[in-house]
Design brief:
The protein is α+β, with helices and mostly antiparallel strands and 615 residues long. The chain is elongated.
Length: 615
Amino acid sequence: MIMKGPDREWLKRRLMGGAFFMLIAFAVLAARLFYLQVIEGEEYLRLSENNCIRLKSVEASRGLIYDRNGVLLVDNRPSFDLKIVLKDARPIKKTLETLAGFTQIPLEELQAKIDGNKGGGKYKPLLLKKGISRDQLALVEAHSFDLPGVQVDVEPRRNYVYKMSAAHLLGYLGQINGGELSSGKYPGVRGGDSIGKYGAEKVFEDLLRGKRGGRQVEVDASGRLVRVIKTVDSVPGKNLFLTINNTLQQTAEAMLRDKAGAIVALDPSNGDVLVMASNPSFDQNDFIGGISSKKWKKLLADPDRPMSNKAIQGEYPPASTYKMITAIAALEEGVVDTGTKVFCSGQYKFGNRVYRCWKKWGHGELNLLGAIEKSCDVYFYKAGEALGVDSLAQYAKGCGLGKVTGIELEHERPGLVPTSAWKRKRYGVAWQPGETLSIAIGQGFNLVTPLQMAVFTAALGNGGTLYRPRILKSVQTLNGEVADVVEPEIIGGLPAGKETLKIVRKGLLDVVQGERGTARRIRIKGVEIAGKTGTAQVFSLKKKDRESDKRLDYNLRDHAWFVCYAPAENPVIAISVMVEHGEHGSSAAAPMAGAVLRAYLEEKGMIERVAKVKE
């Protein structure tokens, strides 16, 4: 059919319009091809033959850690990290041999890193060694043309300002392992990155870890940087202000030097951990970049367990510090009152066994206050006998023993509060009445941690409130803006009325301030201190053997305890000291608490500073 008239004209116009559109499109395409191949052809030829564009990760700076007064405890220092891109490092064997020669890093060590990267990306930089020296850096940079694929990145490296100080509290970093990486708990973290492995570094990992950034870069055929195309800045982690007092921490650690044990100090008004010292300690800086197997084996082989935080993991018989609980239970149950007197001859016969007092010739006749002041065992034997083990256990648990305190740190131990049911379940035999006597003076199956005793002592000092101990005070951004403030948390109250607490507090005051108190040697002029000594038996020995230091092996010697708070009327600090195999609380543990106490009261201006005499 032949189109005529208007229809033919319409079709003609449509065909001409389509042809014109196609002509314009081809003209634009031709112009673009001309620009790319002729005008920019040489540049793109260079890029295609020699260079490529890569995305390079930029690690975020980890948040800093300060003490409660703004003293810097943990910061970041620049680290020169040696890396290799396997795709660029051809031939790999020759490159590694050359690198080993320049840096003096054993070839076997470098090769082991390569072998351990099975399945890893060939374009992804592989970490060979963290923190190379400046001399090694200079050699690598000077011979870059002989080391294809080898690069040195400047990354933030963790630095613990005070070597070995507060190590168990602060913790350390370590390289993330496969299990952690696949757990999904560490979003944004990649293989080779470091994460918190212990202490505050681990507990507050999400706060301290920032957000990774990146750069789009152009590299040549050997993997060397040509230019940076685009940068996305990393976001630093948040800064933490802990509750500890660095000056006080240093004082406590100095007192524990050459001793195994722990010192914990709390603010009784809110549960702030002012001191958490555990000795022996370890250097957290050794773990940065991976601790050597030699150092790790040495730490594990040390019988004094430097990797254990004795403040929360060490479980010890509380000894005479437990008598405060026996006193509370006896008063609340009506077993004794302030007028109840007992005659101590130095021993107490129960059944066919004789239970001895620590004072060989006895204390004579004394009431409850005198029994606390002089730490008379016989008085508390009789009180415990009247109460029974299950009643004692009820009050001990009410005072926070036998369970974790809830501090943010991991691996806290609960200690042990024995009951008749517990023994039957554990050993399959009934509880013996004579065992209650040992429990009443803090021996037997009793186990507590220094932190538990600090929390209990702080509650005695503040009038009966049990606070959850806290180590984090506030969180701040890089700009100094407060992102979060941690509020105190009450976890319970002592199972004691006001009159009971008044009596027990008076007894504790007499321990230090009384004429015959067992801790009277640590008095501070102008400040009344309330406290309690304790000597925890480690091994059962006859009295005559225990009296001779020369007959006792170190590991068989008693542990030394002292707990206190001050000022007695309105305390600002509560302290718990435990010295392993220190033997006597009055001579080994109490002076340590006295030194920490004096340092804190001086800092707060509550007593005059004592000038230190140069030796």
